[in-house]
Each structure stands twice: as structure tokens, then as C-alpha cells.
Amino acid sequence: MLMDATLLLQSIARHITLTEEEQARFVSVLQHRTIKKKQFFSREGEISKGPAFVTAGLLRSYSIDHNGFEHVIQFAPPGWWAADIGSSIRQTPGILNVDALEDSEIFWLRQSDLEGLFIKIPKFERFFRIISQNALAAHQARLVSILSLPAKERYAQFCQLYPSLIGCLPQKQVASYIGVTPEFLSKMLNTRA
């Protein structure tokens, strides 16, 4: 399984250095899962399974409001993490849905295994602190952009953050991410051309 986790281990190596023994211990607690397109990794109202690292495919995290509208919080292509963090940490019902927009492969960690890693290999606390800080900074920047930037600038930011997804996502998904209707996005893109 060590070879299967290569992308994940490379991601970790950008922030911490693990011995071969530490890598083997880490890989031994990983859970692997194939998620078919439109299947869920976790659902709103359920306790999150834990953080998931995408090795192939594409996940999205989103909520559904009381009117039935989807609000995409994040896309997770290969090399990205996805989770309902609050649910994972507190072991309470989640507020997000995480599903696959295409057939996907992930590795994920049970919260108890993650806590065990923090104790047995303290370097992992540093790693998860760094990625958590990066995620918090990104989410704060996104919140400010949603609250203060016009749709064209939010779309430009989306294109910068997810360049590989521009041509493969339906406009409905992109519109949900930038906080506009699909019709508005279509009209906006047509006036740009």
C-alpha cells in the first residue's frame, strides 16, 4: 500500500520529514476507499469519518440551504484534503456533504487514528497544524471575497485557484462556488467573450 500512498506521502514531505518506519506506521492506519461519481463520503447530519486525501478524481464539500440550494464550499482534486472538520474533531453531526463529482480514490483517517498519530509521531501535529492554518487562511480569504468582491472577480479567483477544473466542471457547480445563479454566470461569461 505504500506505493498507493505516494501522492499523500509527497504532500506530507513538503512540510515534515518522516523516517521509513514513521511512513509505514502512517500508511498502516490509512483507510482506502473508492467513491463512485455521485456517491457520498459523508453527509450532513452524520458524524464525519475524518479527513480525506484525494489521490484520483474530484470531491466537493457543500451545504444545502432551507430552499434546497447547494452552496459549494470546496472542490478537492487530487492532492487536496476534504472534510467536515468540526464534525470530525467534535464527533458531532456534520454540517457538510462531501461527495464525488467523478469516480474518485481517497485515503482517509479515523479521528481516533489521527489522535494516535499525534501521540506516537508528534511531527503529524505539526503537519496537520500547517494544513489547517493554510485551510483557515484560504477560507477567510474566500469569505472576504464572497462578501466584498463582484462576481467577475470571484470567478477570476476561482480560475486561479482551480485552473484544472475550469473546463471540466458544469457551470452550475462553478456558479454555486462563487455564489451566483447558473444563469447569472452564463450571462456574465457570455458578455466577457
From TrEMBL:
InterPro entries: cNMP-bd_dom, cNMP-bd_dom_sf, RmlC-like_jellyroll
Protein name: cAMP-binding protein
Lineage: Bacteria, Pseudomonadati, Bacteroidota, Chitinophagia, Chitinophagales
